[in-house]
Amino acid sequence: MNTAIVEKSEPVTLVGGGDIGPEDLELALERARTLVAADSGALVALAQGRMPDAVIGDMDSLPALHRVRIPDERLHSISEQDSTDFDKALRHISAPLVLGVGFLGARVDHQLATFNAMVRHADRPCVLLGASEAVFHLPPRLELDLVPGDVVSLFPLVPVTARSEGLFWPLDGFVMAPDGQIGTSNRATGPVQIESDGPGLLAIVPRGALDGVIRWFLSPRCGRWPARGG
């Protein structure tokens, strides 16, 4: 059990040190006002004139020159090296949703590690904002208003089955797996509904659908996966 460093009843913005668009942080903060930085994400926040409410990580990418600008009580060092700073931050934030910026683009290994953490901490809903897409771990059920032609990609990180309505190629009857059937480059025919039989399925939708995704995660109709045992 991880003790919450940041505990909020509303969404939280989490900023990382990866690629970030010029308006991404502001867009996120308009939807999630509490700002948490994952280690070097604090540099991104400070560069945009924002003081993080909390910084979580091993602090190896936060130079002392910048660290002294942040009040000590907002710095939360986690020294273990078995996980990424994104992982450390995600598992120590208790909120209905984490909206992440600065975690997509740049190094592929960092992105893969981020996706791994999202699935391992499936009980911590998180949406990542990219240059043209929003990426999230699919909850047990998703309902999303999309327009015909919108790309909906689904990528399994474990074997999983799902059912769908509103996709050009329905998911019913397929076992998806990272080394088998995947679901990239599917397309919406209108509003989409997807039910997954278990955790482990990443969803990638157009960036313009972000607000709809946020509304769904905050809806009482959106289920949540239980915390992983062990």
Strand fraction equals: 25-35%
Task: Give the N-to-C terminal Cα separation.
Answer: 9 Å
Structural class: alpha/beta
The pLDDT mean sits at: 95
Main sheet properties? 13 strands, mixed
**If helices are DSSP runs of H or I spanning 4 or more residues, what is the number of helices?**
6
In N-to-C order, the SSE pattern is: EEHEHEHEHEEHEEEEEEEEH
| Shape, principal axes of CA atoms | globular
Number of strands: 15
The helical percent reads 10-25%
- Parts with pLDDT < 50 across at least 5 consecutive residues: none
- Cα radius of gyration in angstroms: 17 Å
What does this structure look like?
- By secondary structure, the chain is an alpha/beta fold.
- The protein is 21% helix and 32% strand.
- The chain contains six helices and 15 strands.
- Strands 2, 3, 4, 5, 7, 8, 9, 10, 11, 12, 13, 14 and 15 form a 13-stranded mixed β-sheet that branches.
- β8 (126-129) and β9 (133-137) form a beta hairpin.
- The chain is globular, with a radius of gyration of 17 Å.
- The mean pLDDT is 95.
- Residues 130-197 form the Thiamin pyrophosphokinase thiamin-binding domain.
- Keywords: ATP-binding, Kinase, Nucleotide-binding, Transferase.
- GO terms for molecular function: thiamine diphosphokinase activity.
